[in-house]
Sequence to fold (87 residues):
Amino acid sequence: MWNVILRKRAQKTVQRAPRDEQKRLRAALKAMEQDPFTGDVLSLTNERATFRRRLGSWRIFFDVYRDTNLIEVTDITRRTTTTYRKR
Fold:
């Protein structure tokens, strides 16, 4: 069992999303508590354990701390042409 923590930026994104997409995002975050690597998950860096999960047009960016079974969701954003430029 993993502990999922959302940063304030990710919480605001979920709250501002349309209601049906909020449900999808919350369901995906809930599923990450069981296994964070199911679904369309891709590692973004090698030195840090940073990953992204694709959920339709949404991207969930998160860091994994295996020693404490902690997942820190750093950002949730809608996919655009500039989504990956700042990462």
User: Anything to note?
Assistant: DSSP finds two helices and five strands in the chain. The beta strands are 3-6, 40-43, 50-55, 58-65, 70-78. The first helix runs from residue 8 to 16.
